[in-house]
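Kindly inspect what follows.
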Amino acid sequence: QVQLEEFGGGSVEAGGSLTLSCVVSGYSHSDYCMGWFLQAPGKEREGVAGIASDGTTAYADGVKGRFTISIDNAKNTVFLQMDRLKPEDSGMYYCAAHNLGSGLCYPGAPHRVFRTWGQGSQVTVSS
């Protein structure tokens, strides 16, 4: 059974940094995509970043140059390094996975293709 578990959320002042981790267990597909999503209060969940098994990465326009997604295959962990954080980056961050490859591994991809989701990790950025 595939499981995703996020770590690393917390509170930080604007301009600060946080790193989120998503530990993956029970996943063996080679053509995977791992994504990070943000659900801000009162808003719909939106894609933030994605990384595919071929190394392709993609970012939402609002986080380009500030966020970095990476993966450590040896540790089965996906990271989201968030720098120069803004109050509008606040919300619940979820990691998610699918095995449909890099063609559907970008922030605007339909959320329904992500079959497995973590429980979420709260990030609060104060001004």
Summary: The CA atoms of residues 19 and 81 lie 4 Å apart. The mean pLDDT is 94. The two ends are 40 Å apart (CA to CA).
